[in-house]
## 1
Amino acid sequence: MNFRKKNEGVVLLSCLVFLLILLMLLRFTLSSARLEELKVGADIDEMMARETAEVAMNDAEDFILNNPTIANRLNQLGALNQLRQSSLSAAVRGFWLANSNWQGQSGIYDGNLDVSDPNGPCANQLCTNRNINWNNPAGCGVNTLCAGAGTNGQYIIEVFQGNSPGGKLQLGKGEEGTILFRVTAAGYSTNAANATQVILQNTYIFGGMRPEPQGAGN
């Protein structure tokens, strides 16, 4: 009788051990599933933020080439289709080479000025000397330009002129008409304060019909 009771105790203990192992496996499986869910959510947020930043970058390029002043100038020229390319080039170049057209406008900064000047360029990649809060999706319009309607994006444009007096590019003679644009764009997954953020930066050199991107980063 004593031997049989001892056996019954061992079976109970074995069942408890197996049950504990099963519970541990179940907990590990549930934790892994939760981590995968969080990872997928983070990937979706990052993708949305990147797409919004790309929209903001496209908006910046469109503003460089087709802001209302340039569009009005083209209408005044009344250019035919075969002349539109040269007319566009002249209109864009004329607009950006005249600092008075854009200097002081929110989100546009003159690269030929000193970084200490309120209208001057950024002192670093995130342009902290211009009091821009890239971490605030609702801050669009405060020292920045807003991306298209319905997007959570903002951008700034820094304008550098080729060989103009006081210009920082110091390009060779004959390059006075060259204009370099450095665009920094921020995109957000939502308009919430804790939204995922992506920042892109491109450099465009205007020397013809359209500015050509020279590099990108985030």
## 2
Amino acid sequence: MEAGKGLCIMVLRRQILVRVLPFALFILLLALRDPLGSWLGPDFDVRWVYPIKVALVLALVVYFLRDYTELRELPADSRWLWLWAPLVGVAVFVLWINLDWGWLNLASEDGFVYDPRAADGRIDWTLAAIRLTGSALLVPVMEELFWRSFLMRWIDRHDLMSLAPALVSVKAIVISSIVFGFEHTLWFAGILAGLAYAWLYRAKRQPLAADRRTRHHEWYPGCLGDPDRSLAILVSRILVQDENCLGFLVKLSS
């Protein structure tokens, strides 16, 4: 009996660990960006901390990949995958790039801005490609595994894998979406995005798709009919948004 109980505890801990650890490592490396820059000396380009962060987090996600059973479960109705998820993703993208004014934006003017340009003003395409790839492909997986697959279900039941996504409570959706929103400087857009992703996850029982669709459209901002804003959106929405986590954690600790 005791052996069986111990095995259950180990399984439960692993279920939580594999969904929390990549996100926790991402936040930790974000917090250590400036100290690492100081420690490595003035000649080190602090922007290269992001590729290091992406590589380490990707290694964790790949290592735990077999544990993410929710990523292999497809909805019975394919319209959720090819119709509703893209529509939700586009809607969130439109909200995200427009709800950035006044009190809806908590960004600090003197905060760190990831600028992929070289000293002569030309874009360093290696840095830009790594940033875009991490933001559009890795971060959505990591965030959805933490916010929706782990936290939202854990609020309702600590044995989270025993809770079907369709049974997630309104309380869990609201709490996780609010915290998710304040992880970002665009907090109101973040809350709306969290609610949309939670609804999609609950309705079709799978995280990630809409978040990934949102990031996919962020790769091509000119598709909204204003190609002159493409570079500005790429820099301000994609290249900067991941840094918002640190500001949120600082606010919590103060």
## 3
Amino acid sequence: MSAAELALAGGLALLSVQLPDAPYEETPPELDPARLKWAREVAENAGVSSLIRFVQGDLFEVPLQDATVVTLYLLRPTNLRLRPRLLRELRPGTRVVSLRFDMGNWEAERTEQVGNPPRTIYRWTIPEPRPIP
């Protein structure tokens, strides 16, 4: 797996459509079967379904340790709830990208406006662990 992706299925399919040449194998968990079906259709129509393995499940229970890129399209409170787990379980250098919603006081290293109407994309990189003094 070149990258594991974490997002609500619809948001991930949207990001995949915007980045169709991205060399990612994406694994978006989704609890709602109807939304998962819709996301599969979006990915199929965008020609990226071969890059995505859809999983019905809880994003707070999906294994993260193999991820090299995590994409999020979640509301800010959910991002904030997920942030400690991302920092604890992801390897240093793993990229985290969020469409529209930030991570509170974890300042993004890069932001960009995309789309019409414009939406903000935030990017962070998981840091090296800090030595305990």
## 4
Amino acid sequence: MGGCSADHADQFNTCNVYRSPYLFLLTNKSVYINFVLQSTFYYITKTAPMENNKDQLETLNEIKGLMQRSSRFSSLSGIAGIAAGSVAILGSVLISIYLHIGFFEQMPGIMSDKKASQPVNLTGVFVILVSVFVLALILTIYFSSRKAKRKNLIFWDIMAKKVFVNFFIFLFTGGIFCLILFYYGIYFLIVPAMLTFYGLALINISRFTFNEIAQLGALEICLGIIAAFVPVYPLLLWMIGFGILHQFYGIYVYIKYERA
């Protein structure tokens, strides 16, 4: 068939090359051995680099993860931000009940001039603020340490210490400044100072942890400036800054970094 004749060996071999290359290999040992060697060499040169590249990529990813964990404090939990914001909102509600004012009402005695009413007793407000801060700090440590434990990370490492020190430098300075304002009766600048110093503290620690903290800090500073220009609504702005913004930040961080 096709011009091939079984009477001639050369024609038989030549025709079977085209009919079945495998038959040609089996009937010619030297060609078969050469084919096997070339196939093996081709497989090694093609698959080995791929496997090596895969191993190298996995190694690089592990090194990258270790470098990120050593240079970033990634244990901050989004749930901690939500919890801290909830505590701040609860504290603002307690302050509203204690002072008998609404969030959209002007706080009596906030401006220290002769036409203003008598300044209210802010001792109870101070106690509520300290309680809110302590409870929010406890919840932040609890949820962040739980996140670190779930990811087999060390919570109180060198990066956590850096975050703690750099955060409380600004926070402690802001607290002293607010006490000075309270001592001299300059009440209308206390909330703007709290928001501003807190925002500066967040921006200061953002280089050690999530970049979103710097954005939250910038919003806190902007809100502090607004509170300085509109000092008659300090409770509302305080609730927005320490309550609502924290909750939005916590939800965003949780969805971006933790939910997966």
